[in-house]
Structure formats: C-alpha cells, structure tokens
C-alpha cells in the first residue's frame, strides 16, 4: 500500500472504532468522560513507559486501560460523596492529566513522548514504523494495533448487544433482572480506554475526543435504532478521516486537526439536514402544517 493509503486506513480505523464506542457514550450522556479519559490515559501511558522503558507493546494498552478505569472509579466515588458529576470529572481529569504532564517533563523528556505529541499525534509518521506480518508483509504498528482493538471492540459490543441496550436505556430494569450493571459499566470504560490509547499515538487527544463524540452525536440525529447508530457513527468517522486528510493537504495544515474539524462539519450538516431532528425539518414542519 502507498504512504497515503496507510494514513487513510489508520485514520479510518480510528474513526470506526471511536465511532462505535462513542455511540454508547452519547446514549449514556457521558460525553465529557471521553474528554476526561482521553487526557488521563496519558498518565497510564507514562507509567507504563517508566515501568518498561518501551513505547510499544501491550503494556501501553494495559496502562491506559487502568488509568481509564481509575478515572471512572474516582469520578463515581466523588459523585457518591456529594460532589456534582461534572465537577467530579473536572477535578479528576485535570489532576491526573497534570500529573502525566509533570512526569513527561521530568522523567521521559528524552523519549519520543511529549505534550505536543500527546495532544496532536504524529499520524504522518505512522507508515514508517512497521512490523512484518506473515501474508500481509510490512504493516504499520499503529494500524495493526487499531485493527486488533477494533476487532475486540466489535466482538464485545456484538456479544453483549442486548445487555448494552438494556443497561444503557434502562439500568434500573437491567438491575432488576439480574444484569451486572456496574460490571458492564467498567467493561465499557475499559473498552473506551483501550480505544483511546490505540488512537492516541496516531492522532493525539484532540482527534480522539472529536471522533468519540461528533460522529455518534451526528448519527443520533439521523436514526432512533441502536444498530443503525453504530453503523452511521462508524461511517461518519470514516468520512471525517478521509475528508480531513485531503483538506489538510489542500491548505497545508495539521492532519489530525483537520480530521477533528471535519467531524464538526459532519455534525453541522446532520444538525441542519437530518430528516427528523434537523433544524431544516423543524422549519419546514410548521409551514407544511399550515
């Protein structure tokens, strides 16, 4: 595959995996948790690096997943002690993210891990860091990681589709029929953390947040069916990745930033033109009623 094709494939994998995970995030009204976890996983990544002195491997995913679950636990703990939910998120994620930044500055400044890299990513360098896979040949490490994470996310979402549906829309009913609501919540937070760290090196925290929220929010405007929301969110994530890449080439700017901007364009189009919830339909309805 060509250099451009690898970048587009990697960005599309980010869009699809984040799009799928983001649907449950939007439906559970936890959009700000995406921002929190996409920042606090930095601490998990730094701790994993300090423990192994390596920037690649499964330990990075494990460290990020632990940081993500820790963020969720601390937010819920503070909330159960009377602190407002949004305030809990703000306190936890700023403290953990700041700790990660401090550790980067003091402990790993000589490694290929810095604050700018964490925020914006290095997707243009992805095709150069490869690994040889039988039958596939040379494959970028980030692309392979995203493929594996997408497979895991799709498998777990598919296997527990009914459980996700019930615990998302009616957690009280789910608890009454014996479903492990809290366990499902922490499993979801683990999936969110895994997806975030898989995309972290390629596109940075800014695009991860955009891909987790905007495509799913756009899909929510187009359909009321959960399965279609998953499909549309993944599709919108892919469209944003491709459009953002060529837009970045056109004006010679940040690729990740342009992809994040593209998710906003997709949301704006959905907000205006979706048939049921779009602004245009609200304007037309009163006129046709007359």
UniProtKB/TrEMBL annotation:
Gene Ontology BP annotations: response to zinc ion; transmembrane transport
Residue stretches spanning the membrane: 6-27, 34-51, 57-75, 87-105, 141-161, 168-188, 194-214, 226-248, 254-273
Primary localization: membrane
CDD domains: TM_ABC_iron-siderophores_like
Domain of life: Bacteria
Location(s) in or outside the cell: Cell membrane
Protein family according to the UniProt entry: Belongs to the ABC-3 integral membrane protein family.
PANTHER family named in the record: ABC-TRANSPORTER METAL-BINDING PROTEIN (PTHR30477), METAL TRANSPORT SYSTEM MEMBRANE PROTEIN CT_070-RELATED (PTHR30477:SF8)
Record-given protein name: Iron ABC transporter
